[in-house]
Amino acid sequence: MNKSYEMEKDVxxxxxILSEKCETSDSAVxxxxxxxINDLRIMDALIEWTFHHRDIYNFQNDQERxxxxxxxxxxxxxxxxVDQDFLFELIKAANYVQCxxxxxxxxxxxxxxxxxxxxxxxxxxxxxPNDLSEAEKDEIDKxxxxxxxxxxxxx
Length: 155
Description:
The protein is mainly α. It starts with 8 loop residues before the first helix and ends in a 12-residue tail after the last helix.
């Protein structure tokens, strides 16, 4: 990846990885390589998320914002309408740069996508092998019936 990005310092410091690198550097102009991110679309998405959320970092507790019972904002919902492969790459990149709110939101999106699905549907969704007998599957589904309720239900 040979594209460079300029970020204002307060925005860059919201990523833990850059915050750590800035603390150990004496240079006035910072230039960093992020070798774990090879896809420009992923990098663009990370920056788009960070700039959009720049004003709320100091005002809300991340755990409250991305509690499974709370809904995404319209912008976040639209931002996270991506295919599963891209979403997983975004989670890995957010984890790498330590953009915790994006990682939490993307993981929440994955978790919500599994709601109201059977074990067979989830296996198919994630390309997981089916190594259980019918009796074992039925027992697991019975034990986890609570998973088949919507996260926003008050009951």
